[in-house]
Automatic annotation (TrEMBL):
Catalytic class of the enzyme: oxidoreductase
A cellular component term, taken from the record's GO annotations: cytosol
Domain Alcohol dehydrogenase-like N-terminal, residue spans: 32-157
Keyword tags: Metal-binding, NAD, Oxidoreductase, Zinc
Co-factor(s): Zn(2+)
Reactions the enzyme catalyzes: a primary alcohol + NAD(+) = an aldehyde + NADH + H(+); S-(hydroxymethyl)glutathione + NADP(+) = S-formylglutathione + NADPH + H(+); S-(hydroxymethyl)glutathione + NAD(+) = S-formylglutathione + NADH + H(+); a secondary alcohol + NAD(+) = a ketone + NADH + H(+)
Pfam families assigned: ADH_N, ADH_zinc_N
Organism per entry: Cavenderia fasciculata (Slime mold)
Entry annotated with the keyword Transmembrane: no
Protein name, as recorded: S-(hydroxymethyl)glutathione dehydrogenase
Name of the gene this protein is made from: adh5
EC number: 1.1.1.284
Length: 374
């Protein structure tokens, strides 16, 4: 490679739970098969907060978080063919190599060629491209979008149309695609269905959009923060439940008011007790519950096996089952054609220097999505 190291600003997290520090970070040139991207904007997803909070068994520090970004390719390494300088891209935390057992299976979006190094906070060659104060800084989810520049494998970027506003469609790099895709690709919600969506943050709201597109008849939104109901209603949610105000467990309540249970449910929180409720509120014989939320290290799900014996199905979904390189451009088109909401998810905007405020607002339950602008 011929490129030079760039020194730029990035939000470095030196230790779990400690505030981010805006540092001058050295970002090495992309090596073979890699690209360096100038990030213009990045959303803040609950998963960033989860790992920052020390809840992720794969968490590694010091690190640069962020996985919901949008940017422009600044330089490319040797042998890169699918991306060129100037391309507008969305980083992918689930890459698409198109060749591995997973990519060719036709059954999953979980491309696994670089999963091991990515989980260790490193590029596929086993090294990091980030340094600060002489120390190695780790990558996060293979994306590290809370930096003015980041380096990614070429299989980990989706090239999108140049007329799409990066400061908005960056949200398609995680939350929106995840909820929407879980409904349409993973669960395959059917017309006329009754659906329960647990958690009405960005992922839950996006699931509601998927349910509306699938022509679900009843879309029941569940959240303990009633401030989340208004937007959910605008998005197409037809009924609301605050489980803290019920006199019985939410699953029993749902079974009672839906003539035996819902056809589909989605857990968009990351709470294993809610995951159980989401499974148990499903209709006997056919109800399908899809887990999207990410639960803390050490937590496990449980239910009576009888729940499954009697025909309920437990599923899970990552990035909405979307194969990023080939399918994300089409999702961007849907937004550009006004058949998928994105702008409505954005409740807050921050400059990179104020990133700690964005996390504070997330923890207070005030945001749907904050955008960090570079
Ligand atoms: P968020 O914080 O914006 O939304 C979570 C919502 O759940 C909030 O509205 C909160 O009030 C509500 N909630 C919390 N506890 C609750 C309870 N006990 N009962 C009902 N509602 C409750 O988060 P988000 O960014 O929308 O992400 C949601 C979850 O999805 C997180 O766990 C995140 O890590 C995960 N996630 C997974 C994927 C994936 O690919 N599987 C992708 C993105 C996010
Ligand atoms: N590292 C965690 C799991 C984290 C996790 O499940 N990540 C989701 C994406 S969350 C996006 O906001 C995912 O895609 N997982 C698939 C994968 O291969 O990581 C743990 O528990 O170890
Ligand atoms: Zn995310």
């Amino acid at each position: 490679t011929t490129g030079k190291t760039i020194t730029c600003k990035a939000a470095v997290c030196w230790e779990a739970k400690k505030p981010f520090v805006i540092e001058d970070v050295e970002v090495e040139a992309p090596k073979a098969g890699e690209v360096r991207v100038k990030i213009l904007a990045s959303g803040v997803c609950h998963t960033d907060a989860y790992t920052h909070g020390g809840l992720d068994p794969e968490g590694i520090f010091p690190v640069i978080f962020g996985h919901e970004g949008g940017g422009i390719v600044e330089s490319v390494g040797e042998g890169v063919t699918s991306v060129k300088v100037g391309d507008h891209v969305i980083p992918l935390y689930i890459p698409e190599c198109g060749k591995c057992k997973f990519c060719t299976s036709g059954k999953t979006n979980l491309c696994s060629v670089i999963r091991i190094s990515q989980g260790k906070g490193l590029m596929p060659d086993g090294t990091s491209r980030f340094k600060c104060k002489g120390q190695t800084i780790y990558h996060f989810m293979g994306t590290s979008t809370f930096s003015e520049y980041t380096v990614l494998p070429e299989i980990s970027v989706a090239v999108i149309r140049q007329d799409a506003p990066l400061e908005k469609v960056c949200l398609l790099g995680c939350g929106i695609t995840t909820g929407y895709g879980a409904v349409l690709n993973t669960a395959k919600v059917e017309e006329g269905s009754t659906v329960a969506v647990f958690g009405l943050g960005a992922v839950g709201l996006a699931a509601i959009l998927g349910c509306v597109e699938a022509k679900a008849k009843r879309i029941i939104g569940i959240d303990i923060n009633e401030d989340k109901f208004e937007k959910a209603k605008e998005f197409g949610c037809t009924e609301f439940i605050n489980p803290t105000k019920l006199e019985k467990p939410v699953q029993q309540y749902l079974v009672d008011v839906t003539d035996g249970g819902v056809d589909f449910s989605f857990e968009c929180i990351g709470n294993v007790d809610v995951m159980r409720a989401a499974l148990e509120c499903c209709h006997k014989g056919w109800g399908v519950s899809t887990i999207i939320g990410v639960a803390p290290a050490g937590k496990e799900i449980s239910t009576r096996p009888f729940q499954l014996v009697t025909g309920r199905v437990w599923k899970g979904s990552a990035f909405g089952g979307c194969k990023g390189k080939s399918q994300l451009p089409g999702i961007v088109d849907k937004y550009m054609n006004k058949s998928l909401k994105v702008d409505e998810f954005i409740t807050h905007q921050f400059e990179l220097k104020d990133i700690n405020e964005a996390f504070h607002a997330l923890h207070e339950g005030k945001t749907i999505r904050s955008i960090i602008n570079f």
